[in-house]
Amino acid sequence: MSKRWVVLSLDALATSAIGVYGSPWNETSSIDKMATLGTVWDRAIATSDDSVEQLAQLWGQTVGDDRWVNHCHKVGRVELYLNAGPQAVELAKLAEKFAFDQCTFTESVPESLGQDALACEEIELTSMAKLLLPVLERLSDTSESAAPDWSVMWVHSDSLARHWDAPRWLFPIEEDEEDEEPIDQVEWSLADFEAQSRAGGVPESTTQKPPAIFESVSVPFFALSPDAHPDWITSWMQTYGCQVRLLDRLVSILLDAIQASGENIGLAMIGTSGISMGQNGWIGHRAGTIRSPQIHVPVILFDGEGAGLRLPGLRSINEVMHYLVASEEGSSRITPEQWASDGTADDTVIETVSHRAERVLTTQQWFFVREGDHTRLFLKPDDRDDMNDIADRCRDVVESMESTVSSSSREP
After folding, report:
1. Which of the 8 DSSP states describes residue 169?
2. Which position among 163, 294, 396, 408 has the lowest Cβ density within 10 Å, counted as fewest Cβ atoms?
3. What residue spans define the domains of the chain?
4. What is the pLDDT of residues 78-108, one digit of tens each?
5. Is 69 within 8 Å of 78 (Cβ atoms)?
6. 104, 167, 322 from 296: Cα distances, Å
7. Are 213 and 250 in contact (CB under 8 A)?
8. How many Å apart are CA 173 and CA 171, to the nearest integer?
9. How far apart are the first and last CA of the chain?
């Protein structure tokens, strides 16, 4: 087990944009390297689509006979690093409630930047890089007076959900990828898209060909019309890809800093929520009706032991805390017996709490959603993006899901 952990949790982190999760369109070489030397959870499911509530559940987990944070305090301080933003005050209160020793804020989005601001030109100017800077300074300080007194440095970023400021050169667009269809010179006002989408309308300009990548830092939140130009999804995916490639660069820097420190430090990357890229007819974070790409999140644990492992079973994200206990003894590795059996039982049921639906259940075979009088059912894991609603054809399964009791809490 790692003596210490650096935990990087992120809102709006999609599995579809990460190479180790099978992304065919985005490159994440550093995250993939981290995965090959660590443990990848293939089917980790968030138990709340509210990231603040999800973090509250994570930090409040009991490991063995005591709270997670109490175990970590036996090694050293538990510290939290946050972007200054809408979630920060709530998360700081939660950290105090769960006995974190320190909460550090970094200014991620200067107040002078409006919705029309453009992306950064350099990586170090981005909000995510600024958030990680104090952590990197702690890791790189090898002076005798700076002996590590911490057990966990938890870094939480919501920039993927609210501020896409990554340099656009991170996702280069080849000239030969452009077709001959001209781009209508319209003003790409995302604020207009948001207003019309929330009012039930769809901007007429979505029927026109968009640029290959968007320059605005504003995060999209709108519904796609049936006749929307097909490149809309591609363009937003490529814009989002810049943000994930920024994360990938920063993961590389973190891994190098951990290695250079000579300490027994693990690195965990956890998505606290996903994002829609057209799967439910919407583009954005927590946009439209809830779908599994919004709650199927990446979990990758790198503990420095150098043995890659994929965990194929269905798991609640809350169980990750059992492996993030800072300790001088024991092992955080998953045993062969756990790999063979964990999360594969047919009765494994994970319930996700959401204000957008009365009930959301994920099982080995199904993803079920009840929204008022309407139910939706998708076959898993085959229908990865919830494209084919078969609730009307499987009424017996719907009735069974309605009466199912969640059994997602399991000891690892």
Report:
1. G
2. 396
3. 4-168+235-341, 349-402
4. 999 998 888 899 999 999 999 999 999 987 5
5. yes
6. 29, 27, 19
7. no
8. 6
9. 14
